[in-house]
Amino acid sequence: MNRYIDTHTHLFVEEFDGDRAEAVERAMEAGVTKLCLPCIKSSSVEPIMQMCAAYPGVCFPMIGLHPTDVAENSDEELSALKRILDSRDDIIAVGEVGIDLYWDTTYRDRQIEVFETQIAWARERGLPLVIHSRNAFDELHDTLTRCRGNELTGVFHCYSGDEEQLACLARFEGFMFGVGGVVTYKKSNLPEILRHLPLERVLLETDSPYLAPVPRRGKRNESAYIPYIAERVAQIYGTTVENVAAVTTANAERLFAI
Predict the structure, then answer these.
(1) Structural class in CATH, domain 4-256
(2) Domain extents for the chain?
(3) N or C, which terminus of the chain has less Cβ within 10 Å?
(4) What is the pTM for the complete model shown?
């Protein structure tokens, strides 16, 4: 059986309260043997750590403040998250962090400041960043450039930019690109864009419970659906699903040291 890693899943959220254990079991049966859990805010930490304790060697924690949860005064949230980061040695990444100006630009400058703070956390600890970016390419690129992004590693989670933006971000050589269910959608431009990116820089992810792939689109997403994404990626690259599984799993293991 092919072996996969879901590099971005929110299995700890309430949408899975009724069948979380079964969802993990379904993932394992589908060959998804490791699950990376991105933090959204401090209240995410306890359920994430509970999952990691229940499934050692399967679930791996990340710590970060999501950009849509940034407010004018996020100092208390940042302090709480930093205390956790400082107190544990099992955190695999700083994430999910970044800049999101899709719904609201009110806290644009504050989002950039908080992102810079969390970039510093990653640099100090030698951890990769898990970056969420929406309608904020210029801000993202400028911030990474200003913060000497070439020294950093990480993943551009759920990549959705165009070919020109891909070329700009690909210059940050320590970064991978997260590919999820969107790649299976009929109107997605991602298949064409990915042809300009080597498979050695691709990670597979679900972002569950969101963005379920075809043929599960419209349903709750879960880690067991990674093979659907792998099949589409294999078609795009003109290779086998086995090769996609092997390369993307190796990419994730190398980036996150898991």
Answers:
(1) alpha beta
(2) 4-256
(3) N
(4) 0.97
